[in-house]
Amino acid sequence: MNLLYIAATNLGWLCLTALLLWFVSLVKRDVSIVDAFWPIFFVVVAANTFLLVDEPTTRTSIVIVLTLGWALRLSGYITWRNWGKQEDFRYQEIRARNTPNFAVKSLFIIFLFQAVLAWLVSLTLLGALTGAMQLSILDYVGLILCATGIAFETIGDYQLARFKANPENKNKVMDRGLWKYTRHPNYFGDFCVWWGFYLFAISAGAWWTLPGPVVMTVLLLKVSGVSLLEKDIGKRRPGYAEYVARTNVFFPGPPKNKPLAGTMK
C-alpha cells in the first residue's frame, strides 16, 4: 500500500476524531477533554495503518502493542485525574483570550491543531509499522527505550497521585521517588517512548520520520510540557524554587545538594 495514501487516510481519521471531540466539548463546555484523547489519536493512526499495511511483520506487532500500552495507560490516567473537575486552567486562559465565538474557534485552534500535530508526530509510527526490513539491534534498543519510558511515566504518575492523595502534602512540592531525580519524570518518559519508536522506524528504513520525535521533544520541552508548567508553578507551590535549585529539569540525575524534607508538584 502506498505510504502517501496511508498518511493521507491517517490525517483524515484524525481530523474526523477531532471533529467528534469538538462536538463533545460543546456539550460539556470543556475543551480540556482533548488532553485525555491526545494519546488516542495515535491509536487511531496505528489501527488504520495496521489495517492498510500489505504484510504486517514482527516489528509491526511489537510497535502496535507498545502504542496501545502507552496510549491507553496515559489516556486512562488523564481521564481519572481530571474526572469531575472543571476545565483545566490553561484552556480557561485560551478561552478568555479567544472570546467571543470561542466555540467555533476552538475547533481550529485546539482540536484540529492537535490532530495535525499528532499526524506529524505519528509519521514515526507510520514508518515503523510499514517497513518490511528484518529486525535489527535498533529494534531491541527501541523496545528497551520505549519500555523504560512507559515505566517512567507509570511510576512517576503513581508516585505523584499517592503524594497528592495525602492531605498533609497540600501545597507541598513532590520531591520523592523519581521526582527526586527529575522534575518531570512523566515528560522524560514520553521523550523516551517517542525516540524509541524512531529507532524502530530507522530499523524499518524510515529514517525520514525524524520530524516525529523532534516535534514531540519540542512540545514536551518548549510548548505544552515543561516550559508551560513551570511558568507559574513557583507562585502556586511554596518551596518550588528550592526544588528547582537541586533537581534536574528533565534528564534524570542525582540531586545537586542534600534534598529538603518531603516538600507537590
Jot down its keywords:
12 helices; mainly alpha; 2 domains; single chain
E-strand count:
0
Q: How many domains would you count in the coordinates? A: 2
Helix content: 55-70%
Which of globular, elongated, flat, extended, rod-shaped describes the shape?
globular
Largest sheet: none
Strand content: under 5%
Amino-to-carboxy terminus distance = 46 Å
Mean pLDDT: 92
Written overview of the protein:
By secondary structure, this protein is mostly helical. The chain folds into 2 domains: 132 residues, no CATH class; 125 residues, no CATH class. Helices cover 70% and strands 0% of the residues. It is globular. The relative contact order is 0.12.
Task: Summarize the topology.
Blueprint: H1 3-28, H2 33-52, H3 58-82, H4 89-97, H5 102-121, H6 123-130, H7 137-165, H8 185-203, H9 211-223, H10 226-230, H11 233-236, H12 240-246
Helix pairs in contact: 1-2, 1-5, 2-3, 2-5, 2-6, 3-6, 3-7, 6-8, 7-8, 8-9
Question: TL;DR of this structure?
Answer:
The chain has 265 residues and is mainly alpha-helical. The chain has 12 helices and no strands. It is globular.
